[in-house]
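Researcher: Next sequence.
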Amino acid sequence: MFVVLVIAADEGIMPQTREHLDICRLLGVKKGLVAVTKSDLVEEEWLELVKEEIENFVQGTFLRQSPIIFVSSSTGQGLDNLKVDEKDMAHIEAIICSMTRQERQNFKVINGSRRRRIAAGSGRPVSEVNRLLKQYMQTRKMMKHVSKGFLGKRLPKLGFPM
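Model: Next structure:
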């Protein structure tokens, strides 16, 4: 799983930034990068301070050696550096398209033989199918955990079924 930790240049690290990084740790995320938004709204000296703050913040985490990319949605600066790997997305799509409707609706029915069939149908190795299912299960577990906390009953109202 790959994440982009987003931090606004004009605000720096906020309490929710710490929570987001904690959630990534719980999910076992190993790869990612830091995107600093609104970089066009602050002075260069401030950006340097924000960068230093972020480097200290991510020390000892999976993001410690990850790139810090400064972006601006207004000017488009840095957005090219955030492009998703189309191959990875195509592989995920192939795996999902190789599942039956029942498997997509209830991942618990996907046993070993079904995983092999999905892998064969998608042209991907079984290990990749297993990894995708594991990420899905971890995300579901995290969302259930989050639903009991701060967001509580707000997630269904936002369109996220629990």
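Model: The beta strands are 2-8, 31-37, 68-70. The first helix runs from residue 15 to 27.
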